[in-house]
Design brief:
By secondary structure, the chain is of the alpha/beta class. It contains 11 helices and 8 strands.
Length: 213
């Protein structure tokens, strides 16, 4: 049986980039581009109707900002996983994007193979954050250390590797443990911190545990 394809929706106001990216993604056997939008209105209408697995979202949409889509309470409740693909986001905007629950942020200049890897990673429920955005995020967030849950040494190590964009298998190899052990540790961390996804885990880590990262 053929594996089900990852359904993608692109939000970018640059037609040439958008259409070129669609051709590139459609050439991948496990991707299907189900929709596209040039602005927030088109995205707000198309995403709930087409139910993609991953939305590729640009930050700069002409006179609009991509983060506004995530801040709309009606639309944000229906959004799937979101990978921001941008020519650049300010430190403040990167922080807002992470707090809004995006699963990843990457630069448009990255090679196509890396973009495809990031999409697959995000589709699996993992996080892809470029290292260039990590330091500003740490510097921009006040650490709320009161009443925080204590993490084990292994859990802290796993959280650090998640911030480096590593998948479960890569984390396991780095720590010399089985991938199943990493998955089990993540389930425990999710329960401890009251989160359901890696993007929510990143948000909590930035707010409460950045001194350990």
């Amino acid at each position: 049986m053929t594996a089900e394809k990852i359904r993608l929706f692109l939000v970018d106001d640059h037609a040439l980039f958008r259409e070129g990216l669609i051709r590139l993604l459609e050439a991948e056997p496990d991707f299907s581009v189900v929709g596209r939008a040039a602005n927030l209105a088109e995205a707000s209408a198309g995403i709930p109707a087409l139910e993609p697995d991953v939305v590729l979202l640009d930050v700069d949409l002409g006179g609009e900002r991509g983060v506004e889509l995530l801040q709309d309470p009606v639309i944000s409740a229906q959004l799937p996983k979101v990978l921001v693909v941008t020519a650049g986001a300010s430190d403040r905007e990167a922080l807002m994007l992470v707090q809004a629950g995006v699963a990843g942020i990457m630069h448009k200049q990255k090679p196509p193979a890396e973009l495809c890897q990031a999409i697959r990673q995000v589709a699996r429920g993992e996080v892809y954050l470029e290292a260039r955005y990590l330091r500003p995020l740490f510097q921009s967030v006040d650490s709320g250390q009161s009443d925080r849950v204590t993490l084990t040494e292994r859990e802290v190590k796993i959280m650090r590797l998640i911030f480096q964009g590593m998948a479960n298998k890569e984390i396991g190899e780095k720590l010399s443990v089985a991938e199943s052990t990493v998955k089990a540790a993540l389930r425990v961390m999710f329960d401890k911190l009251g989160v359901r996804t890696r993007s929510q885990l990143v948000k909590v880590a930035l707010e409460q545990y950045r001194d350990q990262l």
